[in-house]
Amino acid sequence: MSDDRDNTDVAFRVASPGMMTTLQDGGRHGQGHLGVPPSGALDTMSLGLANALVGNVSEDALQAFGALEITLMGPRLRLVGGDCVVAITGDAEITVNDRPVETFRALALREGDELQIHRVLSGARAYLAVGGGFAATPFLGSVSTLARAGVGGFDGRALRAGDRLPLRNAARGQECAGRVGEPHLPQREKRPIRVGLGPQSDFFSRAKIARFFSAEWTISTLADRMGYRLTGPVLASARGHNIVSDALMTGSVQIPGDGQPIIAMNDRGTTGGYPKIATVIRADMARLGQMKPGDRLRFEAIDPAHAEHLWRGRQEAFRAYLARLAI
Amino acid sequence: MTPTYQIVPLADQGVLIDCGETIDIEINRWIDAAARAVRVAGIDGITGIVPTYRSLAIEYDSVMVTQRELISRLGQLVGALRVSHRRCRRWRIPVTYGGEFGIDFDDFARRHGLDREALIALHTAPDYRIFMIGFMPGFAYLGGLNARLHTPRRDSPRTQTPAGSVSVGGQQTAVSSVEAPSGWHLLGRTPVRTFAPERQTPVLMEAGDSIRFEPIDSERFTALRNDRDWLPEWEWIDDGRPSP
C-alpha cells in the first residue's frame, strides 16, 4: 500500500475490509489472447449508476471510473485528508458515523467521517463510487482487480485493514451532493436465467438438455468472481467431459466430470477444457452477479437475436436514464 | 490449408469459429492467421479475439454490431483466408529440472523408465510451438511433446503450483506464468517471468511463437531470477521452421 508521505491528500483508511471488497470498473476487455480475463464489476449497471450519482461521467459511463465492489459484508472506511462525495448502489445497510444513511444518493462526507457498509440485504453486491474517482494505476487499460494475477485495484488484491485508498480528485462531485437516483436492483427480477445453447451442447443427450432446463439449480458455496458452481441433477456427457481447450466467454456454462454446471464469471480463465452446454445472455449477467450461495435459478433458452434485442434495449434505456440524471 | 470449420453463436456474448476436436499444427496456423485477419479488419463492435488450439472466439457488443452482420463478415474474411508463413520468435527458455524445482520429475522419470539425463534430453530436444496462451495471463500451452512423454494428468490436482512451472499433462507440455492450481506433472521451473505486470509487454510470448528449453543448474536459476531486468534470448524464425 502507499505510505503516508502524501497524507495531506484525501483518502479512505480501511478500518475493516469487509468480506471481499475490490476495486472494479467496466472491465479489461480485448486481452483474452494474452490469457487475461475481463474482470470488472459483476453488476455493471450498479457500477455505472453509482458513478453517475457522484458526477463521474465519461464517454462510456460503464467503463472509465472504478468503484469498490462490496460482497455481502462491507468495509468500514475513515475519510482522511479532506472532504469528498460518495454514492452507494445496491440493497445495503449503511451508516455514516454510525447513523443510517440512504443508498442511491450522493452523500457529502467530511474529513474524519466513518462510512460503513454493514451488509448487503438482498442480492450479493453493492458499489461505492467517489466523486473524481479512486487513484489507482490501470493495468492494460483498466483498474479492475484480478487478485489471481495480482493486478489492478490496490496492490492487485482485495482490501485489507489498514490500507490507504487515495482519491484522485475529491474536489469533484461536490455539486452532486444530495442527488438522488432511482433504485436499480436486478435481483428483484424473478425469471429464469436466459441462455443460448452451445457450443458443445451436442455432448449431451436430448434428455440431459431437457433436464438442464427443467431442473432448479442451487448456487453452491463455491461461487466467486471466477465462477459459480451449481448443484442439482447430474448432467453426464455422452462423449466425456474433456475437450481440446476452447475459449470461454463470461457466462459460459461448463459441465465438468461431476456433471454439476460451472458458470464462468468475469475473473474466469480465458480458456477451458470442459464441454459447454450453454452461454448466459448479456442482459442477464448483472442479475446473475447479484446472486449468492443458496440462491436458486432455472435456465431458459432464447435465440441470439432476441438476446441482442434485450441487451440493446436495456443499454439504451440505461444510458438515457444516466443522461437525465446528469441534468 | 483450410480446415473444416463452423461459425456458431455463443448467445449474444460472442461467436466461435470452431475447427473441432483436433490438435494439429496446420489447423493452429490457420487459426493464428484468422485471428490476425480479424484484428486487421477492425470490425466495429468486436471487443475481443481469442485464438485457441482449435477455435477462434470473437467477443462483440450488439449495441455496435449484430451477430448476423458479424457472422457474415467473418465468413467472408476467413473464407478468403490464405495462410502464409510469418515471422515469429523462437525463445530460449532455461529450465532447472527436478528437485524442489520440479517435484514430480523423479516419479515421472521412473514411470517412463528414463534416467535424469535421458528425460531432460527428450524434453529439451524439440522446438515447441505455442499453440495457445490461455487459462491464466501468459500461460503457454505447447505442442510437439515427444510421444514417449505423454502422461495422463494427476488424479488429484494440486491447489497451488509455482509461477514458471514447466509441466506435462496428457500430450501437452506448458510453461506457467502465475501461481495456479494444476493437475499436471511438474518437471521443472524457468526463471523467466513470462508474465510481469510492470513490464511494457506484460505477457512475453504469444501464440505462434516457438520455444526451445535449455537445462540450467539451480545457481544459474537463482542468478537469473534475481536479475529483474533479465529477459531470455530469442531469434526470428519463419513460423516454427528454421530460417533458410
Automatic annotation (TrEMBL), chain A:
Q: Which SUPFAM superfamilies match?
A: Cyclophilin-like
Record keywords, A-Z = ATP-binding, Hydrolase, Nucleotide-binding, Transferase
For molecular function, the Gene Ontology terms on record are: ATP binding; hydrolase activity; transferase activity
> What SMART domains does the record point to?
AHS2
Instruction: Return the InterPro entries for the record.
Output: CT_A_B, Cyclophilin-like_dom_sf, PxpC
Domain Carboxyltransferase stretches: 33-318
> In the UniProt record, does the keyword Secreted occur?
no
Q: Which Pfam families match?
A: CT_A_B
PANTHER family hit by this protein: 5-OXOPROLINASE SUBUNIT C (PTHR43309)
Name of the molecule in the record? Biotin-dependent carboxyltransferase family protein
Organism for this UniProt entry: Salinicola corii
* Record lineage: Bacteria, Pseudomonadati, Pseudomonadota, Gammaproteobacteria, Oceanospirillales
